[in-house]
Amino acid sequence: MFRFTTAGESHGRALVAIVEGLPAGVPIEVELINRDLERRQWGYGRGGRMKIEQDRAEILSGVRHGLTLGSPVALLIENKDWKNWTEVMSAETCPEIAPEKSRRVRRPRPGHADLAGGLKYGARDLRDVLERASARETAARVACGALAKLLLAPFQVEILSHVVALGGVPAAPLNLKWDEIAAIPDDAPLRCGDAEAQARMVELIDERRREGDTLGGVFEVVARGVVAG
């Protein structure tokens, strides 16, 4: 069974993933993994962290000469921002950090895991929760998903995704065919197949950003050629 485990904090030294269930002999191209990591960083309205990180996956084990060995595959993605957080996120016991540099979080943020995690683990500093419950962690998941796509590639299984609605635009989610989704250019700001709707989505993002708010949306993942069984 294909399964994965991730570890790492948003501002820690690195993100790590261990993937199990890949049979021996699967061709692995690191650049295809990095291509998906790069795609993750695209998209209009992304946060400033995307400008700091330039994600590249390093395969630590489980692959030799471009082929899986049948053993677990270990991946590492370095956090470039770690150099600015070495004291705050140190694994070692540190002397007391000055309050203005401690980055301690006491007030739960709406819409985040801060409150639930703080209650669950009894955290007095909510950074213990938010560092793991972070969008940054999804980089490791994307790398694992890229390995899954490489496993499916020999069976000619293809996967695409696109944004079908954002902030109530359009009124009904887009319903596109495979070829229409495949035709969306890589530089589309929101990977949306309707240029008019996409332009309005961008306007909405700018409006909400000025208000200090966010928008919800819907995206669709489509698979073609899935093998029976």
In short:
The protein has 229 residues and is of the alpha+beta class. The protein is built from seven helices and eight strands; from the N terminus they run E-E-H-H-E-E-E-E-H-H-H-E-H-H-E.
Shape: globular
Q: Number of DSSP strands?
A: 8
Secondary structure tally, helices: 7
- Largest sheet, if any? 4 strands, antiparallel
Strand line-up in the sheet with most strands: 1-2-6-3
> SSE string, helix = H, strand = E?
EEHHEEEEHHHEHHE
The share of residues in helices is 25-40%
Parts with pLDDT < 50 across at least 5 consecutive residues: none
What is the end-to-end distance? 14 Å
User: What structural category do the secondary elements indicate?
Assistant: alpha+beta
Mean pLDDT: 92
The fraction of residues in strands falls at 15-25%
Radius of gyration: 20 Å
Would you give an account of this structure?
- There is one protein chain.
- The chain is an alpha+beta fold and 229 residues long.
- It is 28% helix and 19% strand.
- It has a 4-stranded antiparallel beta sheet. Strands 4-5 form a two-stranded antiparallel sheet.
- β4 and β5 form a beta hairpin.
- α1 crosses α5.
- The two termini are 14 Å apart.
- The model has no long low-confidence stretch (mean pLDDT 92).
